[in-house]
Amino acid sequence: MNCFGLSTIRKATTATGLAMAASLLVATAEPAAAEYPEEDIQMIIPFGVGGGSDTLARTIANVIAELELLPVSIQPENRPGGSGAIGYTSVAEERGNPNVIATVSVSFFTTPLRGASPVSYKDFTPLAAISISPYIMAVASDSPLKSLDDVKSAGRLTTATVGAVSDPSLLAALTTKALDVKIDPVPFDGEGEALAAALGGHVDFVFMNPSEVLQQIEAGAMRPLAVSTANRISVLPETPTFKELGYDIEHAQLRGLVMPADVPAEAVAYWEGILKQVADSDAWREQYIERYLDEPAFLPSADYQKKIEEMNSGYKSLMEELGLL
Amino acid sequence: MVTNRVDQLFAFFLIGLGCYIVWTGFEYGYKRDTTPGPGFFPVIVGTVIVALSVVNLLRSLSGAESFEDSMELSEILKVAVITLGLLGVVLLTEYLGLTIAVSLLMLIVGFTANPSHERGFLLRLLPLCIIFPLFLKISFGTFLDIPIPVGIFGL
Amino acid sequence: MEIFSLLFNGIAEATAVTTLLATAFGAIIGLIIGALPGLGPTAGVAIMLPVAIGFGGVPALACLAGVYYGAMFGGAVTSILLGIPGDAPSVMTVLDGHPMAKKGEAGRALGMSVFASFFGGMIGLLGLVVLSIPIANAALAFGPTEMTALMCLALSLASVLGGRNPFKAFVALALGFWLGMVGLDPIAGPIRFNFGFIELFDGLDFPVIAVGLFGLTAMYTSFGSEVKKEAASFKYSNLFPRLKDAISAKWVLLQGAVIGVFVGVLPGVGATSATMMSYALAKRISKNGDQFGTGVPEGVAAPEAANNSASYSSMIPLFTLGIPGSATTAVMMGGLLMLGLQPGPLLFSNNGDFIWTVFGSFWIGNLMLVFLTLLLTPLLASILFVSTALLYPAVFATVIFGVFAIEYSMSGVFITILAGIFGLILQKLDYPPVPLILGLIIGPMLERNIRRTLIQSEGDLAVFVERPIALTLFLLTAIVLLLPVLKRLLNSRSKPVSPDPAQEIQSKT
User: Fold this and answer.
1) What are the pLDDT digits (tens) for C322-357?
2) Which of B65, B152, C142, C412 could serve as C146's disulfide partner, Cβ 3.0–4.6 Å?
3) Is the same domain home to B76 and B64?
4) Of the residues B20, B44, B71, which one is the last residue of a structural domain?
5) Confidence of residue C243 (pLDDT cuts 50, 70, 90)
6) How many CB atoms sit inside 10 A of residue C202's CB?
7) Are B105 and B57 in the same domain?
8) Which of C201, C338, C345 comes nearest A116 by C-beta?
9) Is 50 exceeded by the pLDDT of residue A176?
10) How many contacts (CB atoms, under 8 Å) link A and C?
11) How many folded domains does chain C comprise?
């Protein structure tokens, strides 16, 4: 165990990007003063085993353990129920405790916005985001829609989403505005059902993550029209972004970690350092990025905070339009 | 006769429930644009419950449907005791942990089913109430990795 | 045929020691998890995911699939012996399985369920291997409109399950619909009927209700009657399975298996609906349909054949198209991704050997389960010789642990207790529980698909008759509903004096 390199939190606060190098350099010079973390880290997963959030959380825990980044171990624990409300509430209640972490999901925003959870994003401290999950706008290969111009001139279209409030329905709302075309989202109960509806021609297009739709594209069953990120994505270098095509649509899910509010700044900086190492590691690339076809990224705490606020206001305006607020 | 009275009360309760469902359905929104809203089906289902429960109530009052009392008092008491035991588990788990709470429930169920102090029975029931919850704790908690609530005794 | 040589290669590959062990391990764990009250295939596969992935490659997937179909075998055990549904797809097995056990024919019922599971599994596997691509493509033709029509057909078939008083049956059905609405409405987004409890946001878990409504209620009622019963009335011969039952139920088995294949493959429909349709259809076509519910082997055969064939056919969209059509296959897809495979239409061409070996392991696993469960049957059936005062404490304890494990929370246990009391009231007042369960399963699918259809069509109802598949299904629905009426009319004309007693019973229900 390389406890030395990890014990010097204060140094790591100064420059996040250089956290690892800095701490390694001073590790031998300055013996551990304020030991953090001393206790095992509790990782709360507000959803059941086997789902996307569960996989993400456990993969992060695995990579950290494999790279031996922490002197303590991470204990993942599933606390499902209440669309994430039960798990996230239990994290937020640990105000100031830097030994609890959780991953962010769409429910992190939407459940509190519904007024269905006593806590909201303000009760958490973002640590860092370590990858981006882009959305691809795709149509079945026999669809008459060949480009965004076709979409623009279509008049009225339908799209399959997963639930009434989700990233695809948010993107549908953004598309409606940017392309001035009527889009009716048809909510389904899961990604599989939504994909089946698109392949069967029951809806006109879908917004999906690469891991859900790339195989269909490669097999020629579906055709990508545009991607929702700021830059083109590595798995579909030929597909333009909405921005390139002149439409102001940018929205992707960030994969990151949060802690309860009011944790010491040292702890945040410490975790920024750890997560930076995770994001840069081969293990993370092999076990998550390549498997789930995410785009590599790293957003430190402050940037991630800003993104979280932006996303929250995005969902808020979507829910206002749907008459849910 | 008692069962008939219960049947009428239950139908009455269902009429109330149906009205509540219809009422809430209208609050959720019967229609949204051109499509049924989240309250559309509650309104229909609530109406069906009310209408049919009225029929059931009338049939029972007119004597078209009648029951012979099929439950003895001792039976009702047994069900009540076991239900209280089950609710006890829900309440006590926080303090005693699931394993011990379930162990107590097993005693209650065992003695309700066979209220005796016969030695042979006690010699089988008591060990069972100790060993079986532990066995469940190990199978669910350790083997299936499910976080079984732990109480003040650390079990 | 080429397919069969590929399959035989696959089976040969799957006899590798590690794969065999993984298959057996998965099947046995599945059997146990399926038998535990409440926990079903989805929970089983999710729980075993981390362990199985550790095996790597073919053994990992063989193990996961083993858990899945093993659970389908195991669910019947508790349903039959104790009247507690071991998991959602075995709810219908309770209806005839438990009465058989009460008559002392536990072994016979268990045996029937094993034969039915095996036969259903074989038909499902045949579908998976031979017809997977056409079946998967046919499934894609089922959009919200077609699903709506299918749900209507399912409900019309199931109208025979109502019991004595049709008014009470429809009230129970409506209550089931209502309970199905609890929680987040996925179409418009509000949370309905949660009475302010966050625990209810995600709706009521079907097994939580089913275990209470059938299991607790069964145990409550038996406190009055069964304690007095002498175990000595049980015959030893009835502890053993009877192959004769399976042979005489062959048509029921076949229709169940075929329904399982076609319903199981549809995204979002699932094995539980398949068992309901199969049971209802069997009651309609079987010679002794009017005895269904009193403990006849066909009543066990129909749902068990359907749920096992559905478990295999639900893997068809996963392996051929990369679409997980159910919660269980979604978890399995997670497993595929963790193994570094990309599920999709190219899976077969990119990883053909792998997939055929996995399919091979399914056949081996299905055979293993038959021998295993047939050997265990007499042992399991003799559980009923244990005195209630010792058996029930253990059963209540297992129910609590099992229900807790579904959502990791005591609120589920609380809901089960409520459902148990509610079930007792319903039973004493002659409200049949089956329509309620039916409403809870079919209701949400019907509501959501109607609303999806009308969003697509912008409120135009004509779509329901414009699409050929939907129209056909609606016509079938009309025929199913009108047939008893027509029969009665014809009967009253031709034989005005004394109608056939069997007809009489059928038309009453």
Assistant:
1) 888 888 998 999 888 888 888 888 888 888 889 999
2) C142
3) no
4) B71
5) confident
6) 22
7) no
8) C201
9) yes
10) 156
11) 1
DSSP letters, chain B, are -HHHHHHHHHHHHHHHHHHHHHHHHHHH-SEETTEE-TTHHHHHHHHHHHHHHHHHHHHHHHTSS-------HHHHHHHHHHHHHHHHHHHHHHHHBHHHHHHHHHHHHHHHHS----HHHHHHHHHHHHHHHHHHIIIIIIIS-----B-TT--
> Nearest residue of B to residue A164 by CA position?
B38
Query: Is the pLDDT confidence value at A10 over 50?
Result: no
Burial class (CB in 10 A: 0-12, 13-18, 19+), A220: exposed
Regarding whether B77 and B65 lie in a shared domain, the answer is no
- Alpha-helix runs per DSSP H in chain A: 3-7, 9-14, 19-27, 52-66, 85-92, 106-113, 148-152, 167-179, 191-199, 210-218, 265-280, 282-284, 290-292, 301-321
Mind listing the pLDDT tens digit for each residue in B60-83? 999 888 887 777 788 889 999 999
Q: Is the ipTM value over 0.90, yes or no?
A: yes
- Considering only CB atoms, which chain A residues are within 8 Å of B147? 77-78
> Is B11 in the same domain as B62?
yes
Model confidence, pTM: 0.88
Relative orientation angle of helices C327-338 and A191-199, to the nearest 10 degrees: 90
Other CB atoms within 10 Å distance of the CB of residue A164: 21
B123 and B66 housed in the same domain: no
Question: Considering the domain boundaries, does residue C505 fall inside one?
Answer: no
The domain of B17 spans: 1-71
Contact C179, C440 (CB under 8 A): yes
Gap between the Cα atoms of C9 and C353, Å rounded: 9
Whether the per-residue pLDDT at C507 is higher than 60: the answer is: no
Q: Are strands A156-162 and A100-103 parallel, antiparallel or unpaired?
A: unpaired
In 3D space, the residue among C314, C267, C108 whose CA is nearest the CA of residue A191 turns out to be C267
Residue carrying the six token digits 């609120």: C411
Which of A51, A89, A193 minimises the CB distance to C267? A193
Q: Which residues contact C66 (CB under 8 A, 6 or more apart)?
A: C22, C23, C24, C25, C26, C27, C29, C30, C361, C365
pLDDT bucket at A135, cuts 50 / 70 / 90: very high
Residues B63 and B104 in one domain: no
Assigned token pair, C452:
């999806």
Q: Which of B20, B45, B71 delimits the end of a domain?
A: B71
What's the domain count of chain B? 2
